[in-house]
Amino acid sequence: MSNTKLKKVDIIFSPYSVAPYEILRWMMEKDKQDIIDNLIESGLRGRGGAGFPTGLKWKFMASEQGDEKYIICNADEGEPGTFKDRKLLVEVPRKVISGMAIAAFATNSTKGYIYLRAEYNSLIPSLKRELDVYHEYAAKFGLDFTIEIFSGAGAYVCGEETALIESMEGKRGEPRNKPPYPIQNGYKGKPTLVNNVETLASVSMVCRYGAEKYKSYGTDDQRGSKLFSLSGDSLKEGVHELELGMKISDFVEEFGDGDTKAVQIGGVAGFCIPRKKFHETVIGEGNTTGGATMIFNSSRSMYNVLHNYLDFFAEESCGQCTPCRVGTQQLLKGIEAVKSGDKPIAYLDDLVKLSRTMKITSKCGLGQSVTNSFSSIVENFKEEMHH
Amino acid sequence: MSKIKLTIDSQLIEVEQGVTILDAAKMINVNIPTLCHHEDLCVSGNCRVCVVEVAGRERLEASCATPAEEGMDILTNSAKIRNARKDVVSLLVSEHNTQCTTCYRNTNCELQDLAAEYNVDGDKYMSVLKPNIEIDKSSWSIEKDDSKCIRCQRCVRTCAELQHVNALTASHKGHEMKISTFMDLPFNEVVCTNCGQCVNHCPTGALTERRYFDNVWEAIGDPDKHVVMNTAPSVRVALGEMLGFEVGTRVTGKMVTAMRKMGADSILDTDFSADLTIIEEGNELLTRLKKALVDGDTSVKLPMITSCSPGWVKFIEHMFPEHLGHLSTCKSPQQMFGALTKTYYAEQKGLDPKDIVSVAIMPCAAKKYEANRPEMNDSGYRDIDAGLTTREFGLMIKQAGLDFKNLEDSDFDSIMGESSGAGVIFGATGGVMEAALRTAYAVVTGRDVPFENLNITAVRGTEGIRNASIKIEDCLPEWNFLEGVDLNVAVAHGLKNARIIMDEVAAGKSNYHFIEVMGCPGGCIGGGGQPIPTNAEIRAKRIEAIYEEDMSKPIRKSHENPEIVKIYKEFLGEPLGEKSHHLLHTHYRKRNRY
């Protein structure tokens, strides 16, 4: 089912309409297993981009034994074109923190961290004030789970959960080999659940309204609502909460400026959808769930767009694995050579193949996802690559 | 451990849980190419050369970093894999300085081998090698050429895990990512101990020893120079690997002949000064024990720790400078040899020391640095003029056009060419301890150590830290104060283990009297200047060869070496005497911690 019309909703940013941390208190009266089952039933998937079912992740976490178990809120929002998490942390931090506390209760975790990207350090005072409120209520409810803020150091790759953990341990932010996954062997070698800011806020909403209600939003494949960070050639830039399952054509109709040529969904790690595919493409199906959406009108050079992305990747690759470190440089240098005429147009095909090698050989999601934007831009806008 | 079953290339195998796909494949003789993997080091999984296909997964998995799982169906050779590997190797080549013909590691380079194996097309990808990369030649021992670096981080892991030195680290990210030092300082200004393990573990020519063999050729060609070559114990059990022999073959006699044919004026043996070290160090230990046990001198530092390994000496100077008093003041055999070459040897041979060029052939990179320490000129000249690695020496033999395999055996020259089996075993971890105990026990009791064939097996082996206790009984009258004492000794090799031992010493919790520390894993046989590759299996074979060499010697105890008896009679006088103090002992200094 993928023919839902675009529908705006207002769940995530709606005010926390009950007493402070009341949702947490409700949950603490429930059976832990029921909370997790409810989350699985809701169909909520991770909102960071990878889209792993959140309830399942919690279930694995709950089954891990350990004196110390960590919940980390991934607030290293670094995907270019994404700014929804910041808005959540500014406007409804209570929902995010509630999500962490519910996770801690349901999975018997002992300590929480908000991994905040360094560029968001200005949010620390207000977050701390909210954490004070939380800690007061947690003590009242008898929940032994404190939360601290950890300020990151700026690398994009630290949004990858194992690189994030390395960075928290004071090491260089490089992704780890998986398995073991953080659930088994995470921060300081202990079981660690890493969830994105929006995921945690959504958890609060699932708990507030119940799985049935949450499920009624979206489609069979994609449940609930989702935040979209919209930028580019639109008169409605900003964060929008939309039901999942809409076609790009609907999206463009609502948000485009009437001259939309392409839509980049899922940030630079996502896909670029050309006009001719607007009708057949559903956001979140076969593409990413990250929510960074950029609209380009016909005045934009897609070569420049791609060049900009590759520049970013070549700089933000952690440099650890070969395909990502060197592959990103080759793609960048390659399109420059085609543009300048030093390499034939057919070289673009070699580069697309290279990007596919990067997808199947890179160590983490960064190198694996470069091919998404690369091949979708090169293949759909080939003529712009050499004129 | 439970067992799991999986299929590799249609072959069903059963392995222990936790085994990687790479190791599982090895068990059935399926070789998967690797680059960042080294069996001495923890898994890294960053080069992506070892990728394999797991049925049901679109992405390839790095076999070195992926544990085998029950029911996995793995392919190690398919079009998808070959294409991916070729791409990965091509990418590495595209950021590499491919001037292979002028590279020191030409024909012994893992990247070169893979590029050949996959027939990499050098034109497919454009070079992304950074221009104007300067080679860091600041160190006496090690050169770092980033243009040859493939960022596998084997050096970083070696420096951190094997050696606990952490002089090398990955810095920057993306296309700027590189292997660097603290604040990108030159090698000679950082905490590097010059052990050379990074060089030995580097798959390419990015890290190499600083070469001095051309200077040696020049000296050999100069009729006014008298070139004295001496070779360390562990060179003779490893050199053959470069020249067509099986690992673990002793090539002592051929090695001596080779040096003679190369034109050296005198071929001497560092084993001689190893024996001398035993006499000086053994006496130093007994003196310290007497001061501590009889005189109640609380300023005496015990345990006393060996000082033969220059990498270890620099390590303690950096890491535990407040405990330098524990180090024996004895110079290393190389430096004793150098000081004596330009004094005793010159005198005996009627040579002017200024005309002597002393060349030390060592398994070591740090020996180059040691030879250049400013204080190492007690003879009035630079005691050692050039320190070469086993690798440089092997190359010289090739350059000389010698048919090494078919060379006749011959003996070292005299004087300073005679040695005991005790001097030989210096080359293996535990060897100095064993040699010292053979002599010290005999000095104190007048009897041989109470072990079959003098073999003190308790201090042998490859465990990182080993210890033993020997009860001293029925002493000669002058050593009565040691009667009934349990002499506690320990052996550590690899700087990681040195740190563990030193942490105990620093905490005042060490109950040892004497500790042997060697900077490299396995001792000198695993030194940073030894043939590449070096790994656990190779180290074990070289160690075996060292003990065979010991058993083959008619004299097995340092104090019975006739040339040692002679040098004390004719030149040094007595152990720890004035001349010894001047020529054979040294001092240490505090160094920075970065």
**CATH architecture annotation name of the largest domain in chain B:** 3-Layer(aba) Sandwich
| Unreliable residue runs of chain A | none
Please identify which CATH superfamily of the largest domain in chain B we are dealing with. Fe-only Hydrogenase (Larger Subunit), Chain L, domain 3
Q: The CATH topology of the largest domain in chain B, please?
A: Fe-only Hydrogenase (Larger Subunit), Chain L, domain 3
Largest sheet of chain A: 5 strands, mixed
For the biggest β-sheet of chain B, the strand order reads 2-1-5-3-4
N-to-C span of chain B = 42 Å
**Uncertain residue ranges of chain B:** none
Helix/strand-derived class of chain A?
alpha/beta
The portion of residues forming beta strands of chain A comes to 5-15%
Would you tell me the overall average pLDDT of chain A? 94
> What's the rounded overall pLDDT mean of chain B?
97
Count up the helices of chain A. Answer: 14
Q: Please give the CATH class of the largest domain in chain A.
A: Alpha Beta
Question: Which protein chains make the most extensive interface, counting residues with beta carbons within 8 Å of the other chain's beta carbons?
Answer: A-B, 36 and 38 residues
- Structural class determined from secondary elements of chain B: alpha/beta
Number of helical regions of chain B: 18
Radius of gyration of chain A: 21 Å
Hey, roughly how much beta strand do the residues of chain B contain? Answer: 5-15%
Would you kindly provide a written description of the structure presented here, covering whatever features stand out?
The complex is a heterodimer of chains A (387) and B (594). Chain A has 387 residues and is of the alpha/beta class. Helix content of chain A is 45%, strand content 14%. Chain B is α/β, with parallel strands linked by helices. Chain B folds into 3 domains: 75 residues, Roll (Ubiquitin-like (UB roll)), CATH 3.10.20.740; 116 residues, Alpha-Beta Plaits, CATH 3.30.70; 366 residues, 3-Layer(aba) Sandwich (Fe-only Hydrogenase (Larger Subunit), Chain L, domain 3), CATH 3.40.950. Chain B contains 18 helices and 17 strands. In chain B, the strands form 5 sheets. Chain B has a 5-stranded mixed sheet with strand order 2-1-5-3-4, sandwiched between helices. In chain B, strands 11-10-13-14 form a 4-stranded parallel sheet, sandwiched between helices. Chain B has a 4-stranded mixed sheet with strand order 12-17-16-15. The interface between A and B is large, with 36 and 38 residues.
